[in-house]
Amino acid sequence: MARPKTIDREKVLECAEQVVQRAGASALTLDAVARQAGITKGGLQYCFGNKDDLIAALVERWIAAFDMQAALHGGPDASPLARARAYVRVCSQIDDATRARMAGMLVTLLQSPRHLQRIRQWYAGWFGLDPATSPDTDPAQAGRIRTLLFAAEGAFFLRSLGFIDMAQAQWDSVFADIQNMLSTPAPAM
């Protein structure tokens, strides 16, 4: 087989995900990814450096994919409430490939704790709906939004990790409930 003139980083990252999905995070080696991608280990190292850099690229790819989907649903300059609705919508759209990707990502992160900081930063950005920086959101609404984001994230992880198994209609109903709660004004206190 002829060697490609350039290495397609996205294709290599897809191959890395396939390795993790098929054989688990412990199988994520430069040799395995290079084989899956049909490139040399040297070419892979030239493109990504080392395994740790490959994992960092995977994390950034997962974050970018989620954020892109959320931006499509939330629109530009979305309010905290619109951002929360977009977040919940993206969490609700889990499929088998996403479920496998998330399980692989979690196991990979456990093996490489250095990358947890990037994930923590990303979550802080989503869950840090601070009313002081968003004057159109009152504190009660901000707390409600944060709670519903946690509910969506919890459901997403429970299903991703296979801890719950539910029919698609039931899954859709759970997320419709969360979306309805986001659309209902917070009760007066």
Question: Could you characterize what this model shows?
Answer:
The protein has 189 residues and is an all-alpha fold. It contains nine helices and no strands. It is elongated and about 60 Å long. It starts with 8 loop residues before the first helix and ends in a 6-residue tail after the last helix. The mean pLDDT is 82.
Strand content: under 5%
Radius of gyration: 19 Å
Question: Structural class, judged by helices and strands?
Answer: mainly alpha
Number of helices: 9
List low-confidence stretches: none
Spatial gap, N to C terminus: 69 Å
Number of domains: 2
What's the helix-strand series?
HHHHHHHHH
How much helicity do the residues have? Answer: over 70%
Mean pLDDT over the full residue set: 82
The count of strands amounts to 0
Tell me the overall shape.
elongated
- How does the major sheet shape up? none
